[in-house]
Amino acid sequence: MKYKDSQKVALLSRNYFARLGVEILIKQTHDRVNVAASVSNYIDLDRVLKTQAIELVILVECNQDMAGVNWFRYITALKKKYPRLRLCMCSAQATSLPLIKGYIDAYLCLDQSMMNWQLHINQLLASDSRPPETSKQYLDLSEIEWMILKELKEGKKMQHIAERNHLTYRKVSALKNAAIRKLGLRNKTDLLVFLTR
């Protein structure tokens, strides 16, 4: 594998120690990796992405903070704004994996062996590797679909959402089902889990 001279990586997590641990692992994995930023929120990550040529963002230990509607909306915006940016989720558990399919380019589990870490990180940072084509269906939720999901998350009933937005109940139901399909969820139960995170 060929590598560029220097690879710029950014880490995002509210947990400082989780970011620090992943930074140490990355530095041990490849000596040409430059962890250019380690941030705890979206605003700081946006500033970094505007000012530096970051090639990979690793979302560290983000099952709780980044699995709901706002997280998916943010990741969708990132993918549209920076199409060459690769996103990797790093977590202690793999339970949220079906929900993130189509949104990220790689997934690392913290209980993997060091050898697996090295292999995955090296593949992500190889200059000849391209991020897989992200399926458009996962990223193309309309504004009204996002709005319906947000209102469902707030506990509003479908009839209330329909009346408030001058839509029919059937239209709201159809938009909700379209969002379920686009997010790669299997059913309404998966949607409830998604909305409560």
Main sheet specs = 5 strands, parallel
Tally of helical runs: 10
Kindly report the CATH topology of the largest domain.
Answer: Rossmann fold
Residue share in helix: 40-55%
Task: Quickly name the level 1 CATH class of the largest domain.
Answer: Alpha Beta
How many structural domains in the coordinates?
2
Give the averaged pLDDT, no decimals.
75
**What's the end-to-end separation, in Å?**
39 Å
Low-confidence stretches: 127-138
Task: Indicate the radius of gyration in whole angstroms.
Answer: 18 Å
* Strand residue content: 5-15%
- Largest sheet strand order: 2-1-3-4-5
Offer a concise description of the structure.
The protein folds into 2 domains: 7-134, Response regulator (Rossmann fold), CATH 3.40.50; 141-196, Arc Repressor Mutant, subunit A (Orthogonal Bundle). Helix content is 50%, strand content 14%. It contains 10 helices and 5 strands; from the N terminus they run E-H-E-H-E-H-E-H-E-H-H-H-H-H-H.
Keywords for this entry:
10 helices; Arc Repressor Mutant, subunit A; 197 residues; alpha/beta; Rossmann fold; 2 domains; 50% helix
Characterise the protein shown here.
The protein is of the alpha/beta class and 197 residues long. It folds into two domains: 7-134, Rossmann fold (3-Layer(aba) Sandwich), CATH 3.40.50.2300; 141-196, Arc Repressor Mutant, subunit A (Orthogonal Bundle). The chain has ten helices and five strands, in the order βαβαβαβαβαααααα. The protein has helices at residues 16-29, 42-51, 69-81, 97-100, 114-125, 136-139, 143-153, 158-164, 169-182, 188-196; strands spanning 7-12, 33-39, 56-60, 86-91, 106-109. α3 (69-81) links the parallel β3 (56-60) and β4.
